[in-house]
TrEMBL record:
It comes from the Eukaryota. Gene3D superfamilies: 2.40.128.20. This is Venom protein. SUPFAM superfamilies: Lipocalins. Keywords: Signal. Residues 34-159 form the Lipocalin/cytosolic fatty-acid binding domain. It comes from Hemiscolopendra marginata. InterPro entries: Calycin, Lipocln_cytosolic_FA-bd_dom. Residues 1-19 form the signal peptide.
Length: 171
């Protein structure tokens, strides 16, 4: 569920120079449907008081609806579509601020009541942005799950495995 990171991708992210995005694949998307609250992110967002997303499935396609609430009373919504392609990887399609449709590799990994979402945006010329977040069905945090997902991402060659706690006081 890159859904919650999808919106945060519009802000500052982890950028590095390399040949492309790491080769990371989702195993199965079983259990991703429902509402998820962002409880950790690899990027700190002090002005976001709540970020949550709803994932639904229709056939082979998953749709996400992300809602973000800010301290100043403003909010934003981002919708996207996630689909598995012939290379066996899942891709997230969403529209950026310029009205351009992005098509980026994504990963969703469920562990109990927690969901790891990761998205890698390839800007070309070896410049990519990786964003990762951990979501909870019930706004609970867990240092054990944070460490587990961080280690898993690192083992797959991804950057940005350091997670910061996200606010849920505005949810």
């Amino acid at each position: 569920m890159s859904l919650l990171i999808l919106a945060t991708i519009l802000a500052v992210g982890v950028v590095r120079i390399q040949a492309g995005c790491p080769s990371i694949q989702s195993d199965s998307l079983t259990g991703v449907e429902g509402r998820w609250y962002k409880v950790y992110s690899n990027i700190e967002y002090p002005t976001v008081k709540c970020a949550y997303g709803d994932i639904s499935k229709s056939g082979d396609t998953y749709t996400t609806n992300v809602n973000i609430k800010f301290d100043n009373g403003e909010s934003m919504t981002v919708d996207s579509t996630i689909k598995k392609e012939s290379d066996g990887k899942y891709y997230d399609e969403w529209e950026n601020d310029d009205g351009i449709t992005q098509h980026d590799i994504t990963l969703l990994k469920v562990d109990g009541d927690f969901l790891l979402s990761w998205i890698c945006v390839d800007f070309g010329d070896g410049v990519i942005k990786e964003n990762a977040a951990i979501h909870s069905r019930n706004k609970q945090t867990s240092n054990a799950i944070k460490e587990k997902f961080s280690n898993w991402l690192t083992s797959k060659g991804a950057q940005g495995g350091t997670f910061y706690e996200s606010r849920t006081d505005g949810c």
